[in-house]
Amino acid sequence: MVKIFPFRGVYYNKKKLKNLSKVMTPPYDIVSPEMQAKLYDLNDFNFIRLILGKEFAGDNEYNNRYVRAAAFLNGWLRHKVLLTDDKPAIYIYEQRFTVSGKKFVRVGFISILRLEDMGRGKVFPHEETYPRAKLDRLQLMRTTSADLDSIFAFYSDKKDKIGKVTRQTMKKKPFIEVKDLDNVVHRLWKIDKKPLINKLVQEMKDKAVFIADGHHRYEAAVRNKNELKMKNTKFSEDEAYNHVMVYFTPIENKGLVVLPIHRTVSNLAYFDPIRFENDLAEYFDVVPYPATKKTVGKIRKKLLKDMQKVTDKHAIGLYLGNYRYFLLRLKDEKMIDEMVAEEKPKAWKHLDVTILHYAVFDRLLNMANETEDKVTYFKSEEEAVKAVDEKGAVMAFLLNPTRIEEIIAVASELEKMPHKSTYFYPKLLSGPVFYRFEHGEKVKL
User: Fold this and answer.
1) Is position 420 within any domain?
2) What is the structure's pLDDT at 50?
3) Which of 2, 162, 168, 323 shows the smallest number of beta carbons within 10 Å?
4) Does some domain include residue 419?
């Protein structure tokens, strides 16, 4: 059973900060060092100081970015830069954005969710995680006692029962409206009336919830709960730390846009590009897309369009530098079935990212267990290509986006996709509202 609850959200005081766009940030996992520095300079109260603080040479166990984040948070609350809602609420969250010239609107709501081990109830993950990233978020959660960012999840609302409640609330003026660095407009409303809250709570009870983004944070929250549970002999499940902040959006929402995440590979010893091209032919039909300095942009666009047209076979784009592009089309899906020794469902085996990881990363490049150190992820194909041309990456793989139905098919089988298989766009903004849990506090309707 999915148990959601309203919470007393924490958000910026508009009386002290007139321009909220200067204190909001993208999520921590897409902030580059250059962007981090820019956000630090933008405003003394920018949210980056909480979610991704700077590191210094003299940092130690007692003075580090996690400890400083907690100090900033406590100080901002004390000086009323941040305010805490007087009563629990559920927050409607709308994003208006443009992709490839087309306008979209995505609407969901933010509440807290009672934690459960993923795959043992109604909450399903779909991606693998890295230990290093989980520990990072866990350390931040330990020091701040807060969920500073929402988990992003989706569910089915075929009869539009939840949609009717959210639209009813959205007739009022939003209490927060801000435009981010990508010109996405973010707006929030509060639902603090008990009848409407109870309606959402009841409707969500029997839903299956699929985590779209925030797997590391969810697993960190579970571990944090387990650590605190060990210290609490009277654990009842109602404890505030047994909950995590989640943004829920319906799968039927046309604004649920999934973009691809491209990959580059670096640090390959004794790499021979000519041999690699020949080896690819064992698994793929390799179609070259020759380009010159003048035509490279046009050729890349053509490659990406042609990849999207391939429906009968899996298609992956490859860039090997010096304007050399290739279209890789899997010769036969039976190859992947034979390659993947584990008892995995068909939906998992036939994902483009699975094919890339097993056929190329594992078989051809012999780096199956080294991807965390050798593979870098990019939401922009231009940035991935630039990493090869200017930053020493050996190759870039350009991918089609994973389809929603593929995500559900894999997650429903209690399986996880390879790391960074999906990029739900736009990301949720960091800073509009967050959840702070007091130790000893209980969560009940």
Assistant:
1) no
2) 98
3) 168
4) no
